[in-house]
Amino acid sequence: MEGTFRDYLSLVLQQPTMAQRAHARLYSMIHTTGVRVDEAGKEHYAFFERDLFGIDEPLAKVVEYFKAAALGSDVGRRILLLYGPPSSGKSQLVILLKRGLEAFRTRMQGSVRHR
User: Fold this and answer.
1) What is the pLDDT of residues 21-41, one digit of tens each?
2) How many whole angstroms separate alpha carbon 104 and alpha carbon 25?
3) Residue 97 exposure: Cα atoms within 13 Å on the Cβ side
4) CB 115 within 8 A of CB 14
5) CB neighbours of 67 closer than 8 A, spacing ≥ 6?
6) By the 8 A CB rule, do 1 and 41 touch?
7) Which tens digits make up the pLDDT trace of 7-16?
8) What is the 3-state secondary structure (H, E, C) of the chain?
9) For residue 22, how many other CB atoms are within 10 A of its CB?
10) Is pLDDT of 112 > 70?
11) What span, in angstroms and rounded, lies between the C-alpha atoms of 40 and 14?
12) In sequence order, what are the beta bridge partners of 44?
């Protein structure tokens, strides 16, 4: 997508979420997909449910990182380091976030064009 700053500003005025910082955009993408709270009060995110199993607690920590950074805390200045044993979902998480952001961006641009 190409254009002038004036074009961009016009789009942002129509759809303010286009100007979100990266952490806020990731948090919005994950959260708007759906959140289920179980009997123990733990959150389960629909964004991950089809592809990542048995790692709800680590996923909740990642989402908490994005949430804190989206709200402007100093957490956003830190690097998110994913570590763990092989086949624990690290690469799959990154692939899901990438694909999700691509789809999220496409939906946001589509909603601005149709206004």
Assistant:
1) 889 999 999 999 999 999 998
2) 9
3) 17
4) yes
5) 27
6) no
7) 888 888 887 7
8) CCCCHHHHHHHHHHCHHHHCCHHHHHHHHHHHHCEEECCCCCEEEHHHHCCCCCCHHHHHHHHHHHHHHHCCCHHHHCCCCCCCCCCCCHHHHHHHHHHHHHHHHHHHHHHHHCC
9) 12
10) no
11) 40
12) 36
Average pLDDT score, the chain: 87
Residue 115 is predicted with a pLDDT of 53
Cα(103)–Cα(29) distance, integer angstroms: 9
Tokens of 66: 């994005």
Using a cut of 0.85, tell me whether the model's pTM lies above it.
no
Percentage of the chain beyond pLDDT 90 is 43
Contacts of 18 (CB under 8 A, 6+ apart): 11, 12, 108, 109, 112
The token pair that represents 100 in the structure block: 């999700």
Q: Is the pLDDT of residue 114 over 60?
A: no
- Tokens representing 88? 């624990």
Structural contact between residues 30 and 47, judged by C-beta atoms closer than 8 angstroms: yes
